[in-house]
Amino acid sequence: MNPNRPTIIAGNWKMNGSRAANAALLDGIGQAWSALAHQAPSCQVLVCAPTVYLSQISEHIQSSVQIKSTSIAIHLGAQDVSTQSSGAYTGECAAGMLKEAGCSHVIVGHSERRQYHGETDTTVAAKAKAALAQGLQPIVCVGETLAQRDAGQAITVVSAQLKAVTDLLQTDAARIAVAYEPVWAIGTGRTASPEQAQEIHAALRNALTSARAAGVPILYGGSMNAANAQALLSQPDIDGGLIGGASLKPADFTQIISAAHALRAGPH
Ligand code: PGA
To answer: Smallest Cα–Cα separation from 8: which of 113, 125, 135, 104?
Structure first.
């Protein structure tokens, strides 16, 4: 990571949770953080939850004694957003609605949405634009499949995914965050090595620099956990994590926040 760029530790809860489980998880994060440290984490902490629970989570973050009594600020993100701002789009949720529910961020173009819902680079770019128009920071996900990696196409694939977004956003590209999530590492327990991840992050950084968006944080996602977070986050172009499975366990998620906090606080 680089202290000149923001560090973001984001939990992607995917389609998990219940009102009771959400409250317990959030309180667990607060409690685990106060057991570890008394100062505020020097990174942004975010949970991206199922749409139907966003308002509940926003209210819980503001009212829970377990969270209010600690120094941790937990921000809220959604996992998807409509390209449209309102109208006859059954089942969709607009960026303005997510904002009103308490979100500051939204994941766009997660590989599970590209794979199961046919989202194209063009759709993902339009979603990022719709998010920014309402003041939400989109976390734009890019990543190659195993077949693409084996064919030596990883950098070509992620560069094209990112280019669709930066071309549409132009100067607003500086306001996004990016998550590099190799599809073969998501939910598989098979993490990219720090060197493999850094190679792609460096290529993405070059592309962002050419798009005059050099300060955009690039998160790594794909089986990041308490044991491997420190090594991944130590890489010069890895500015945080988008964490699925491990974000559902308060102790593990908090360990990852702590690793980011320690690295940011330095000295190395
Ligand atoms: P994982 O998921 O940490 O469970 O691999 C990451 C993601 O899909 O965002």
So the answer is: 104
Q: Which residues contact 267 (CB under 8 A, 6 or more apart)?
A: none
pTM for this prediction:
0.97
Task: Return the ligand 1 atom nearest residue 112 CA.
Answer: 8
pLDDT digits (tens, 9 = 90+) for 196-242: 999 999 999 999 999 999 999 999 999 999 999 999 999 999 999 99
Which ligand 1 atom sits nearest the alpha carbon of residue 222?
5
Whose structure tokens read 């073969």?
184
CATH superfamily of domain region 8-265? Aldolase class I (3.20.20.70)
- In the annotation, is 60 catalytic? no
Domain ranges of the chain: 8-265
Distance 244 CA to ligand 1 centre (A): 4
pLDDT in tens, 173-196: 999 999 999 999 998 988 999 999
